């Protein structure tokens, strides 16, 4: 006889995701004692403890986290089946759910999704959030892929994530003023004011290293972790900024911003991150390959 009772698995899944038995009991219209009894029976059948209580909170054990991983996949497939049945098993297109780091260049994101816009058979959704929320959503199968400028594999012996380099963009000095014929760093910027990315960004780190190398101390007027705001500040403040050209592509084309020079050996890297334990869907892999071939 099977040790997996899928009613029990469903109750476990709901409680594990919510981390609150009371709320789950209210949502599915069962008593707390009934759900608790079902969970005890489920753990007995499996022969492992899936939860441990910390105060009033149920916390997953190591075995519980592994069971949750499978439960996420099982019920995600169940939802796909329900959608297929509702549509009468007619041929349908595919959907791609993409998580985006909240300060990532919108121009880069647009270049990534362009093939989807041109594909009549595929729909997609974009969700912006912080890196911890994106990784949590990827782990829980809310996203097929997330886009970021951080390599999340660094330092992990058994990585949970698969991080693929999509693009490397040179970092440039830009401003609203037209550049003279020749520019050299830092001599051309002795009296300059700067609007810069925040200190925790890869772009800012590259600029800081360059300044230290030349013993240059920039006069910083403003800094922000919002790339859209940085574009506006660079355009409207009259100050200099450092950005990958892809971020200000539209402003450069319109003549509201101008590239003064590229910084030597300074780049921003863009990554596609997927779950290492799950095969990459074909449509997502196709997207990744299309962007990588453009490097």
Automatic annotation (TrEMBL):
Keywords: DNA-binding, Transcription, Transcription regulation. SUPFAM superfamilies: Periplasmic binding protein-like II, Winged helix' DNA-binding domain. Pfam families: HTH_1 (PF00126), LysR_substrate (PF03466). The keyword DNA-binding applies. Residues 4-61 form the HTH lysR-type domain. InterPro entries: LysR_HTH_N, LysR_subst-bd, WH-like_DNA-bd_sf, WH_DNA-bd_sf. The keyword NAD does not apply. Belongs to the LysR transcriptional regulatory family. This is LysR family transcriptional regulator. It comes from Microbulbifer salipaludis. The lineage of its organism: Bacteria, Pseudomonadati, Pseudomonadota, Gammaproteobacteria, Cellvibrionales.
